[in-house]
Amino acid sequence: MRSLLVTLNLLLLAAIIGVGFFWKPEPDRTPLPGTHAARMVADVQLAAQPVGGDFTLAGPRGPVSLHDFAGRLVLLQFGYTYCPDICPTSLTILGQALDSLTPGELAQIQPLFVSVDPERDTVARLVEYTQFFHPAIVGLTGQPAALSEIAGRYGAVFVRHDGDSAGGYAIDHTALTYLIDRRGNLVGSLPHATPPEQLVAEIRKFLSTP
């Protein structure tokens, strides 16, 4: 009887070892905040062919269109006011660059900050937020479908992640500064955290000198 129990125990142990050896569970594919989505943003950004073009969104005093700024260089950024680090960094650099320009140069420029979070970013909130960084920056927002269409034309993407922050959700988004010339044509973009002095140098390439 004892011999039978020993044999059964050995067989059970062998079965457990066999299962552990051959069983390979499917890895957890749930994206971590700021990892999978960030790679997705980078991939789409590189694959997209930005064409730019006119658009109309809600601004501080009603509808605002890109063509309203004909004759000026437009600096366009996509982001949102609850952004924990990317947007504050981008807007701080932009504000520093704008402060380095002369009044005559600044008059030839229009910085725009387009929110990709219309659920939380009201026009009033955008005014308060953008003015903190520089009074020349105008915040815009709109319906989700319109924002997606506009962002797509500029090669930008944004991806929402529920429960990723204290605010209820976070949004991974493209963090470029787009340059739109006096005729409304997309002529280039600068990467996130471009130093202020480099941003000023790029801006001045498109400005007329007195």
Short characterization:
With 210 residues, the protein is of the alpha/beta class. The chain has helices at 2-22, 36-47, 86-99, 103-106, 123-133, 144-153, 196-204; strands at residues 56-59, 62-65, 73-79, 109-115, 138-140, 158-162, 169-173, 177-180, 186-190. Strands 5-4-3-8-9 form a 5-stranded mixed beta sheet.
What are the main properties of this structure?
210 residues; alpha/beta; Glutaredoxin; 7 helices; disordered N terminus
CATH architecture: 3-Layer(aba) Sandwich
The low-confidence runs, each spanning 5 or more residues with pLDDT under 50, are 1-47
**Count of helical stretches:** 7
Q: Quick one: CATH class?
A: Alpha Beta
Binned, the helix content reads 25-40%
Find the count of extended strands (DSSP E, 2+ residues). 9
Per CATH, what is the topology?
Answer: Glutaredoxin
Average pLDDT confidence is 82
Broad structural category: alpha/beta
Give the ordered list of helices and strands: HHEEEHHEHEHEEEEH
What gap, in angstroms, lies between the N and C termini? Answer: 105 Å
Residue fraction in strands? 15-25%
Radius of gyration based on Cα positions: 25 Å
Give the CA-based shape: globular
How can the largest sheet be summarized? Answer: 5 strands, mixed
Number of domains: 1
**CATH 4th-level superfamily:** Glutaredoxin
The largest sheet has its strands arranged as 5-4-3-8-9
